[in-house]
Amino acid sequence: MARKFKHDPGVDHGTGFGPPVVIEDVAVSPVVSIRRARRADPLDAIDMTPGQRQAARIYLQAHEHIGAGRGLGPLPFGRDVPFSSTGGVWLAPQERALSAADCWRRGCQAMGLAASEGVVNWVVIKGFPLHEYDAVRKWRRGTASAQLKAALQRLSEAYGTA
CB neighbours of 114 closer than 8 A, spacing ≥ 6? Predict the structure, then answer.
């Protein structure tokens, strides 16, 4: 018997909205295919420059490093790219976490607190669609789009990806 959940685990219960999901068919063999659901990227639905998209990814990666508290994985801006063919730059986890915190701080300062805690947090960090941010704020649909694009433009200029 399947277990029934009291609450849907994929919904943010503070707002009642959930992250968008894409359902796709995956071929297992030439005859059989299975359906799979994956979380959709809300940035794909927004018209932005490649520099803005890269800046959003850097900001998200820095935020994830800070949230993990371990500083694992590649550093933002590719600072751990090998400097020779035989080795690379090795940094302790604490140094990685400090580098991510510095990267995230510069992004917050460039965008401003209202944008970094508002529409950018909603779309880039939480992964919710932009039109749901308008609905939660009780704005006309499409109002937050200009705010997001302006914040991502300031972010890309601060990160040097413009």
Answer: none
pLDDT per residue over 90-118, tens digit each?
666 667 777 888 888 888 888 888 888 88
Token pair 């639905």 is found at 45
Residue 97 burial (10 A CB sphere; 0-12, 13-18, 19+): buried
**Number of domains observed in the structure of the chain:** 1
C-alpha 78/C-alpha 58 separation (Å) is 10
Rg (CA), the chain: 19
Measured torsion, CA atoms of residues 57, 79, 161, 38, in degrees rounded to the nearest 10: -20
Residues spanned by the domain of 106: 41-82+91-159
Neighbouring C-beta atoms of residue 162, cutoff 10 Å: 16
Q: Average pLDDT in the 7-17 region?
A: 51
Give the three-state DSSP class for 118: coil
Structure tokens at 125: 């960090």
15 within domain boundaries: no
